[in-house]
Write a structure and sequence with these properties.
11 strands, Immunoglobulin-like, 6-stranded mixed beta sheet, single chain, 5 helices, 286 residues
């Protein structure tokens, strides 16, 4: 006797079956019922919970496995929404209503789409977004997924850790001048989304820095001695320090993203010969 025909064809109907049907899939652990019991019955690994179960129509699976993940922090502002769903009846056509926005409950933004992704466009920085997906089959049955939430990143917060500081500046500089497809390129540093990290992105990043939000002419964040802006003070800083000391124009030409005031090691408001000794001391370490 054949106890079952595998998944999703199923096995037999047992009048004394006491199992429940809350999940689906070959291992019966994915959310959403499929007409098949979640536990085996006397060697039948896929027992039907209803008589003639293989002929019945079941509601589609409630959407699960959201991307971005539920509760995710620092989500990129270019992120698309994605989810997993489907239907116990292989011939059914499944469509989705997508609810999305900063209000709860979120408004309907797309109805009866067949794709399991949705592009919400450029998201607002430092915002909380709510979303939910309802799956429909072509017999009018539906299953709603849970209400999900995620938090977008602060523009310029490249780590991300919730603020825009010198460490973000270092990450920006590492991506400066690189374009999409290069390993140094970072999507989160390409703030104007043109495929290359340029001075335009640099000015946009500066508007997000610390207390100077909204002021593209604000002073750059500083870390004394780090003239190459790579996060550390080492031999690579000697040449840019010399340029900052004797030829500021050449420094700006060679390091357009750099902060010449990192050369003001003695913090007197200017880069001059008095900074040489404290600069050397920084390079020497404690």
């Amino acid at each position: 006797m054949a106890w079952d025909n595998g998944y999703p064809s199923g096995g037999n109907y047992w009048s004394d079956y006491a199992g429940i049907d809350l999940y689906h899939g070959p291992d019966q652990y994915l959310p959403g019922c499929d007409g098949i019991g979640d536990t085996p019955k006397d060697g039948d690994h896929y027992p039907f919970v209803n008589l003639d179960g293989w002929l019945l129509n079941y509601a589609p699976y409630p959407p699960y496995s959201p991307a971005p993940a539920d509760g995710a922090f620092g989500v990129d502002r270019n992120a698309d929404l994605g989810w997993t769903s489907g239907d116990p009846n292989p011939a059914d056509v499944v469509s989705y209503d997508v609810y999305f926005g900063t209000d709860t409950p979120p408004p309907l933004v797309s109805d009866h789409q067949t794709a399991t992704t949705y592009d919400p466009g450029l998201l607002e920085p430092n915002a909380i977004y709510f979303w939910q997906v309802v799956a429909w089959d072509d017999h009018g049955q539906s299953s709603a997924g849970p209400l999900w939430v995620f938090f977008t990143s602060v523009a310029g917060d490249l780590e991300p850790d919730g603020d825009v500081d010198y460490d973000d500046y270092v990450l920006f500089v590492a991506a400066f001048g690189h374009s999409s497809g290069q390993p140094e390129y970072r999507l989160t540093t390409d703030l104007d989304h043109d495929g290359v990290v340029t001075l335009v992105d640099y000015q946009m990043w500066r508007q997000s820095y610390g207390d100077y939000v909204g002021d593209p002419q604000a002073p750059l964040p500083a870390r004394p001695g780090d003239l190459s802006v790579d996060g550390i003070v080492n031999l690579d800083d000697i040449s840019p320090f010399v340029l900052a000391l004797i030829d500021p124009d050449s420094y700006h030409a060679a390091y357009p993203w750099g902060n010449m005031m990192n050369g003001d090691v003695d913090a007197d408001g200017q880069v001059n010969f008095a900074d040489i000794k404290p600069f050397i001391a920084l390079m020497s370490g404690p």
